[in-house]
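fyi for ur records
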Amino acid sequence: MKKTILFLLSLVTMTTLWAQGKAEVKVTADCGDQVEMVANPETGYHFLEWRVNGEAVSTSASLTINVHSDSTFVACFEIDSFLITFENYNGTELEKKFYDYNQTPTYNGATPTKPATAEWTYTFAGWDPTIVPVTGEQTYVAQFDQEKNKYTIIFQNEDGSQLQKSDWEYGATPVYNGATPAKPNPEPGKTYSHDGWTETIVPVTGEHIYTAKFKETLNQYTVVVSADPAEVATVSGGGSYTYNASVTVSSTITNDCYKFLGWYENDVLVSEDMSYTFTMRTNDRNLVAKFEKIKYTITIQTESGDMSQGSVTGAKK
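which gave:
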């Protein structure tokens, strides 16, 4: 049975409002105005119809109406369904069924079989591809193991932890089907990607262990520099840097009436040097070179040192 999802769009006669992406939107409009409404199905659903008072009024996801009364338009959505087929090795259909989007298919029939021959005995081993939640039509084909000389092949991580252990027939090329290996104990400031195995995978001739190897990339971080006040100095050294890089930020005073106070980060002094060098770690930095206007004292006095001959005054203009 299809599942229908209902969303409400209510119209009332007030000033015009507009909103998008809600389960309910109230749009106010004057009588005679036009109101446009759009139904936006989520992934895995499709728009079915607009309903008013339980009656279907349109199957178009985009609908424009002339406002003449309070109304409630209900957007009806329906979940997508897809046909999932299970086949035997020879294309024989074993089971066929519709599943809703994101539902995980299950095979409920008899265990698939493949007739034995004089050389081989076949045992059902699962499906190809691996069963995953439904996103579209899919055919899963039964897979079989052959009874022959087999050897244990292990895929392990760099620290020796086992990732996959399975038996493989002589002459078969092993395949790693597990999750992508992750670097054990990764160093901060670096990104690691799985880069295959320490040995080339070859057809089986005996038991063997393959060890994961990794490609290392230094992370990039951003340094932002600025001056406060901005008009009294120039600053340099900002940009993008790799982890562990040596970074130097510098400031140059362009107004002689100011003195350098230091480099600050989050209002905390980190260096009193106009040229500040540091090692890039695992976070972006926002450095501010702060300056303060220089204050001077002007002394105005009489030659005699007293007011017997006269006095002086002074004030800042």
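The chain has a mean pLDDT of 90. thats all i got for now
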